[in-house]
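Worked example 3 (structure in, sequence out).
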C-alpha cells in the first residue's frame, strides 16, 4: 500500500520530508479491523514529532496521522455489527480496558495507552489496522472526509468542555487559541451547550470565521496590552471557565487571570517550555486549573452525534484537502497557520 513515511530523526523536518512509499499492508491480529483510509487530518502533534518537540514512542520510520475516517475492508472480530464497505471513524487512542484508570472510566489515562501515529503507525496511508473497539460506524448524513477531524480536533475540546468543565447554559467562557482547529470546534461546542463565548485569537481572517460560528465576542490578542483585564471587563468580572488550547507561555497565565474567583481553567494544549503561574493568585481566588489529555475513546460516538445534529460544522473547519502525495505541503500550511484544519486524501 502507499503510505507517507517519516524517517526522522525528530527535528529534521522540513529538511527531511515525508516520503511516499510502498509499504506492507498491516496484518490483522485477533479482533482487528482493516480500514481503507478515506481521509486523515493533519495535526500539530504530528508537527511536533517532525520538528523534534516530541519523539514518537514507536521510533522511526513511522506513518503519522491520528484523525481517520474510511471504509471497512476486512475484519477478524466476530462482530455482526460491521460489514465490508461500512463508513467508519476511528478513535486513535487504544486503552487496555483493565487497568485502574480504564476501570474507573478514565481510559484516556490508561497505563498503557497507545496512539496511532505515535506508538504505532497511523493514518497517512491507504490502509490502517485498528482494534474493533476503536472503530465506530459513521452515521449517514455526515461527510466522510471532513468527519475525520472529529477524532481529535472536535473530540478533545468536547472532553475539555463537557466532561471536565461541565459547561452549560448561562456560563461565560473564554477560549484561548480559538482560531485553531480545536479552538474553533470548542467555540461551536460551547455555543451548542448554551454558553456565552469570548473567543481569543491572533489572525483576523480566522477570527471572522469564529464570529460566524457564534462567538459572542472575538478578541484579537495582539491588540490588547493587558488581555486578562480586557476579558474581565467584557465579562463583567471574569469568566466562569477558560479553555486554553495552546498551553503556551503567557497564555495559560492570561487564561487564569481572565477567570473569575472560584472559576476553572482547562489546559488542553501544551508547549515545549513550562508555564508560570502565581500560587498566590490561585490560592487567594480559589481557582481550579486542570489538564485535558485526549478523551475517552469509547465516548467518540457522543461527539459524532453532536456533529450529526449540525451543532459542529466540520466542513467549514477543513479549509484544505490535499492528495496524500502533497502531504508535506499540507504540513507546511498548518505550520504557517494558513489553514484551520487540513486533511490528506490517500
Ligand atoms: Zn491531534
Ligand atoms: Zn488501561
Amino acid at each position: 500500500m502507499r503510505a507517507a513515511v517519516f524517517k526522522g530523526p525528530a527535528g529534521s523536518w522540513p529538511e527531511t520530508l515525508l516520503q511516499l512509499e510502498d509499504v506492507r499492508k498491516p496484518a490483522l491480529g485477533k479482533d482487528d479491523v482493516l480500514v481503507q483510509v478515506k481521509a486523515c487530518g493533519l495535526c500539530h502533534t504530528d508537527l511536533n514529532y517532525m520538528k523534534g518537540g516530541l519523539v514518537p514512542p514507536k521510533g522511526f520510520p513511522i506513518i503519522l496521522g491520528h484523525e481517520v475516517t474510511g471504509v471497512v475492508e476486512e475484519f477478524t472480530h466476530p462482530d455482526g455489527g460491521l460489514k465490508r464497505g461500512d463508513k467508519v471513524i476511528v478513535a486513535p487512542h487504544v486503552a487496555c480496558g483493565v487497568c485502574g484508570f480504564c476501570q474507573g472510566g478514565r481510559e484516556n489515562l490508561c497505563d498503557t495507552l497507545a496512539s496511532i501515529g505515535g506508538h504505532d503507525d497511523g493514518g497517512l496511508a491507504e490502509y490502517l489496522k485498528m482494534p474493533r473497539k476503536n472503530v465506530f460506524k459513521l452515521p449517514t448524513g455526515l461527510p466522510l472526509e471532513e468527519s475525520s477531524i472529529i477524532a481529535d480536533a472536535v473530540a478533545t475540546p468536547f472532553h475539555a468542555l463537557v466532561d471536565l468543565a461541565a459547561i452549560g447554559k448561562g456560563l461565560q467562557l473564554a477560549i484561548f487559541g480559538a482560531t485553531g482547529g480545536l479552538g474553533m470546534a470548542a467555540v461551536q461546542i460551547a455555543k451548542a451547550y448554551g454558553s456565552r463565548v469570548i473567543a481569543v485569537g491572533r489572525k483576523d481572517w480566522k477570527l471572522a470565521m469564529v464570529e460566524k460560528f457564534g462567538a459572542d465576542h472575538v478578541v484579537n490578542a495582539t491588540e490588547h496590552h493587558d488581555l486578562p483585564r480586557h476579558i474581565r471587563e467584557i465579562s463583567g468580572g471574569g469568566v466562569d471557565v477558560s479553555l486554553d488550547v495552546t498551553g503556551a507561555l503567557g497564555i495559560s497565565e492570561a487564561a487564569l487571570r481572565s477567570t473569575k474567583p472560584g472559576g476553572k481553567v482547562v489546559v488542553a494544549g501544551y508547549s515545549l517550555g513550562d508555564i508560570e503561574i502565581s500560587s498566590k493568585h490561585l490560592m487567594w481566588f480559589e481557582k481550579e486549573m486542570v489538564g485535558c489529555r485526549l478523551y475517552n475513546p469509547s465516548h467518540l460516538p457522543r461527539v459524532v452525534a453532536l456533529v450529526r445534529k449540525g451543532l459542529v460544522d466540520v466542513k467549514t473547519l477543513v479549509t484544505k484537502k490535499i492528495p496524500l502525495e502533497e502531504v508535506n505541503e499540507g504540513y507546511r500550511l498548518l505550520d504557517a497557520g494558513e489553514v484551520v484544519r487540513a486533511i490528506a486524501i490517500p
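Notes: The two ends are 10 Å apart (CA to CA). The first helix runs from residue 44 to 51.
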